[in-house]
Structure formats: C-alpha cells, structure tokens
Amino acid sequence: MNRVSNTELKPLPFIIGRSDSNAERNKKTTAELLKLTKEEVERLKKKANECENPKGSRPYSRFEAISAHIWKCTSKARELEGNQQSVVRFNVEIRNRIIPNLPKNFYGNALIQTSARGFIGEITSKPLSYIAQKMREANELITNEYIRSQIDVIRGFENLDDARKLFINGGRDTTYFGNPNLVITSWMTFPSDKADFGWGKPMHFGIGSLSQFDRGLILLSPDEDSSVIVCMHFQVELMQLFKKFFYGDLYELFTSARL
Amino acid sequence: MVAIQASYTVTPNESTPNGHLWLADTDQMVRFSHHTPLIYIYKQKQYQKNIIIETLKKSLSKILVHYYPVAGRYCYTKGGRIELNLNAKGAVLVEAETIKSIHDYGDFAPSDSTKELIPNIDYNKPIEEMPLFAVQLTRFQNNDESFAIGIAYSHLLSDGVGCIDFINSWAKIARGETLEPNELPFLDRTLLKFSHTPIEPRFEHRVEATTIHYRKI
Predict the structure, then answer these.
(1) Is residue A204 part of a domain?
(2) Most CB contacts within 10 A, which of A166, A202, B30, B53?
(3) Rounded CA gap, A161 and A191, in Å?
(4) Rounded distance, CA B170 to CA B45, Å?
C-alpha cells in the first residue's frame, strides 16, 4: 500500500513572525450560542452553491456551507495578513468509509482527523463556494487507504504521547489549535432529543465547559424547527467582531441572494 | 455554587465479561485526562428528586450490562498505550443542588457556571481509579420544575455517535422499554486493528519544536 501524505498531521502554522503559539494560547476564550434559523441555513447553502461547484458534483451540504461561513468570519475578525496560513481541523466519522465498513453500532472512536488549509487573503475575499470546496476536499481525502495510512502512522510512534499531540482530542494540553487556526465539530447528526428518561425530551442539549481554543461546534436547535446553533468558542477580544461578521455577512447574503 | 448532596457508585446489575478490552489507535489519540462534558436540561411538572435518582440509578445499572466497558477502568500497557480493564468498578452518579436559578445560566452557553453542572473528575488520582462515566443531577433554586443532567464521558470510550447511542439507549431502558438486538453496541474494536506496514526509509515528522523519530522496523 502506498503511504498517503498525512497532511492533517503536519504542524499547524503560527501567526507570521512568531515562533510559537504562546501569546495566543494565553488569551481568554469565551463561548456564545449563535442561532441560525432554518431560513438562514438555507441562504448559506444557496450562497455556497451559487458558483464554482464543479459540474456534476452534488451541492454543498449544510455542514460545508456553515463551516465555510464560520471559517470566513473567524478569518475576517482576526485581521491577520493576507499571506497568513490558516488550518481548519475536524474529525471525519469513518464507519462507512473504511472497507469493509464498520457495523453501524460500532462502539469506539471511529474518527479520523483531517485539515483544510488556506490563506487568510483567499478565505476572506473568495466566495463561500470556494471555502466550502476546501472543506469538501479535506473531507473527501478520508478514504479507506487514507484511514489505514493514518492509523499506520500512529502505530509507528514509539511513545503514543508524541502522537497524541497531533490530534484535536489528544493534544489540547500541548498543542494550541486556535488563532490563526480553528477546530470545527459537527454534532448536527446527534439525535439528542431521544434522551427522554421518562420525563420528556430535553429542553436544552449542549456542551458543558469551555474549550480553551477557537472552535465552532455546530448543533441542531432543540426547537426542532431545523434551525442550527453554532456554539462558538473564540478569543474574548475578538468575539464581538466575529459576531458582527457572522450575522452581518448573512444580511449581505439576504440582499444579494437572487430570490 | 453547587453543593453535592450524595454520590453513588453504580455497577452493572448482572455479571459482565472480565479481562481487558483492546483500544484502537483512534481511541488512543484522545487524551484520557478529559471527559466530554454534556448538559441536558429538563422540565418536569413535579420535581421528585428521589424518583429521578432511583430511575437513573436503576436504569444505569441495567444499561451497564450491555455497555460494560463504560463501567471499567483504564490501565497503561506499554509505550503510553491504554487498555480498558473490564473490572465493572462502576459509573458515578451524583446528586447536587445549586443556589442559582435556571435563569442565572442564560442560554447555557459554556462557561465556568455551566461547568458546575458537570461531575468533577479528579485527574490527580491514578488512572486505574478514574471513573469513565459520571452523571450529576442538579436541581435549580427557586424553580421546582427544571433540573440539569450533567455528564462527564471519557472520549476514549467512543466518539460522539457512540456516546449519544449509549445515552439514548440508557434513556430507553429508563422509560421501561427494552433494546432491540440492532441497538446493542458492537464492542469489539479489533476491526480497526491493522498490522503496521513498515516502509523504508521512515520519514521524520516535525511537530512544533520537537522532532519525532519513528520506530525503526
């Protein structure tokens, strides 16, 4: 088997001119629940599919559109240089990707990490479809061969602590996944409304403590109206600006979208 | 401020397989010194703490028969690798009360406040003593109807899909229903056990300031 280049395990870029992430890591993070109505989600999807979607390929998904929007807004809020590299890390579920497939009820971590990479200049200026395509490519990278290669790389480490540093879920104590980078997690497929112990469905489901790095966690709203909640973890000093773009760009979408 | 009123250890209510469960390489890439913190908020017309606690306790001891790894403990093997000791030491169920009202938490965006609703796990203890799953029932002040179920779930047990399946199956049992055969978890992780393919020359991989040297095969 050919070894696939495991780009998702390459070191994360620092802010240009710096040799580590310490200054960013020491900044305080906060979290806010940002709601996207069903209509807003549809608008984002429409915008992501306006152009540049290679002919014949399926339309960009809700996840691709929302995560592209989050990446764009973080990039704008950070006010970094155009030639600054930015990496979005996310996990891909592999029950249906590995060959043979894992059983649906496979209990364990059927996750492989992937990364989308871009420059702040392109992420802030190109259309949403361009960023959605980057998310798609990072996602589609995770093939059977790739999964086996990543697992093989892990198995090659003498001490697994060295390997853990490379992963979102393993390296938070040693690696900073925030500015100029970002982690995106989707819990949109989680049927959290089924957690009825006999006293009804939960009126709220969410994460209970703060991530110490920039992270967009995408959940379905408990309102069951197909609206989405982005639980956004971002540096305190940049959160207001992020929100301005998160909803401001949506407004622009409304005025520019061809109805 | 949250005051802990009682803490119980819940074990499977039938005997479960013992021995050690092999954890996949994808499991190993999750730090053990962190439990995924989840919050569920419920409203019930008449809050009856004893009934809720008893329901949770009884159904948890039943679901742990099917999901017996959740009741186990971790142990190290070699090279920093972790395995699961299927010793049925149990999960933790905590009963708590807060002096805050539900409104003090706003929309429950994660913060130091919401963290109080999640069971606290002591990572200073030896790994062999650390529970992999803990639940905290917290009643809010000035509100007889709402309460929180906070969860601390070790990510090495499974990804989110597996975690939510576990919680939903637990809820199903709590409702007095039984699990269908296709709802039972598939526990054997060796489906992800591949032999290491040595390829020469091994490459070096730069990680921040450290160079990782791969094992020579």
Answers:
(1) yes
(2) A166
(3) 33
(4) 22
CA gap B214, B217 in Å, rounded: 9
Is residue A164 predicted with pLDDT exceeding 90?
no
Over 90: is that where the pLDDT of A18 sits?
yes
| pLDDT the model gives residue A5 | 60
This prediction has a pTM of: 0.91
pLDDT in tens, B91-100: 999 999 999 9
Residue-wise pLDDT tens digits, B160-216 = 999 999 999 999 999 999 999 999 999 999 999 987 665 543 434 333 333 444 444
Tell me whether residue A158 is in a domain. yes
Give a yes or no: residue A162 inside a domain.
yes
The pLDDT of residue B217 is above 90 = no
Kindly list the residues from chain B whose CB atom is less than 8 angstroms away from the CB atom of residue A195. Answer: 40, 164, 167-168, 171
The residue in chain A having the minimum alpha-carbon distance to the alpha carbon of residue B118 is A208
Q: Is B85 exposed, middle or buried (0-12, 13-18, 19+ CB in 10 A)?
A: middle
Question: Is A28 in CB contact (< 8 Å) with chain B?
Answer: no
The verdict on residue A196 lying in a domain is yes
Question: Is A173 in the B-facing interface, judged by CB distances under 8 Å?
Answer: yes
Q: Which domain holds residue A228?
A: 29-254
Domains of chain B: 2-186 (3.30.559.10)
B10 and chain A in contact, CB less than 8 A: no
Q: How many domains does chain A have?
A: 1
